[in-house]
Amino acid sequence: MSCAEAEADGETGAAARREARLRDLLFVLRCSAAATVSILLAQAVGLPHPVWAAMSGVIVSQERLGDTQQATIGRFLGTLLGVAIAVLVGLVARWAEAGTTAEVAIAVALAAVAARRWPLLKVCMWTCPIVFLTATPGLPIWEVGLLRGAEVLLGGVVGILLHVAAEWVIRLLLRRENR
């Protein structure tokens, strides 16, 4: 290997290390921002349990953008399925005067059937208990499901938007460095 080749190889390695450090820093910042911004937005629009927005924003935040996109799709579709199952089971269970434990057992069993078939949607299994265990007396179960779904979707949108923004920043900085 010539000196010029070794120098070029060293520059490439240094550039790769700088990019890795930048990605690490932006991962930390965007995860923290996803939780914080999700809480603030959920509070601003009056959602009663902003914790679910914060958790969703962090859960969808993966290392690579493609993984974040997959996690977001799974989170969104799984949440919608879990809410639908919980609301349907809740309506029937309330009519049959079954308790919360029975509602959770039945809803999670149905969600688990779906999760076995479509693993990307496994969040539906824990969405069901969340809907039942955060229910407010006097609030219809469909409204509880709608609120939980809104909290989760809000956090997921924040998480993916911050990841897209971080990727844009990385590309911009790398372009400037390569000039």
UniProtKB/TrEMBL annotation:
Domain Integral membrane bound transporter as annotated: residue spans: 38-161
Membrane topology: Multi-pass membrane protein
Organism: Xaviernesmea rhizosphaerae
Keywords on record: Membrane, Transmembrane, Transmembrane helix
Localization in the cell: Membrane
Name of the protein described by the UniProt record: Integral membrane bound transporter domain-containing protein
Tagged with keyword Coiled coil: no
Spans through the membrane: 27-46, 73-93, 123-142, 154-174
A Pfam entry, by short name: FUSC_2
